[in-house]
Design goal:
The protein has 20 helices and no strands. The chain has 402 residues and is an all-alpha fold.
Amino acid sequence: MSYLTFVLRERRLLTFGVSLTFFSSFGQTFLIALFVPFFLDVYQLSNSGFGLVYSAATLSSALILPWLGQWIDRVPLRWYSLWVAVGLMAASLMVMVSWHISVLFMAIALLRLCGQGLSGHTAQTSMARFYDRERGKALSVSSLGYPLGEALLPLAVATLLTLFHWRVTWGIIAFGIGAVLIPVLYLLVGRTREGRLNPSESDEAADSAIKNYEKVFSDNRIWYVIPAVLMPPFWITGLFLYQIRIGSEFGWTASLIATAFIFFALARTLASIGVGPAIDRFSARTLFPFYLLPMALGFLMPVLVQADWVAFFYMALFGTTMGFGSNVKSALWAELYGTGMIGTVRSLISSLMVLSTAVSPFLVGWMLDADISMVSLLILAIASIAASTLLAFRVHPWFDPK
């Protein structure tokens, strides 16, 4: 009942967060992957060739993200969020009219920047800043846009692709952003506390971005946290982009993988909702070192058992880590560094995460072209997660009581 009461009381700002996380899907790998066969055909690219283009575009967005992301600490939220939405719409239009690989490159870079990067950054930064005792619940609710997008949009886009040309589909996407997202953001964030910086933190937020970055990197704990933060986006981006090729090695059909995405979205939803009260009760620092464990188990299952039903557990365990992680990480920055500079901190971390997703498509594509087995790839993923988990315990209250 307290959860429901909170949602009803804060419905405006929570709807703002859900809207941004839902529309961020158009800059996410799982949705762009539906268009990869068309890109390969039109621009005469190989898997590794497109992976290189995709990685370079994502890297470009990662380099810009820290500078653009820190402005959320300095300008009214309404106008910041509107510019993010306009950028996402412009990127969709660029894909629609792309006549050369260079134009497609710029369009993907803008999609990744405004979709994967700034949309989620705006939503989660706002939740972490404007709530204290109920921060976990707010982050959980605003994160529901991610699994909603993952559950609904692939089927919707796939249906559009059967009815229209892929360029027309991107035009429809751009129209949806302009007709739905932009008006919703404008109406939901008025000239209230949601529209400005939290006054109690304004002096701290006024520090320069460079000074805030110096504060972050002078804290040794950040180096123990970063590996665990980067593992999910790195592996999920690489594996989702080439999901059809990877699934074929385990005998999973394309329709089976598409069905398994429902389990991914459902598990992410349940994990996101469930972890919110746990954050409020136990703290993000307590929960953070454990959030990678479901993903590690998901990697392990296909190594041990090769059957169709494993695909559902594989995807569900990925979704569990993603649901836990998006909320725990956002709350962690507020606990470690305070809310006044959370936009700057989160944009820096988001940039590193985007950077990991830039490297992943090229590396995974290269390994697949080199005929490295999927089992070997998953064992490597498990080892990297184990090492990152051990390092993450450095921020747990057991080892770091401050």
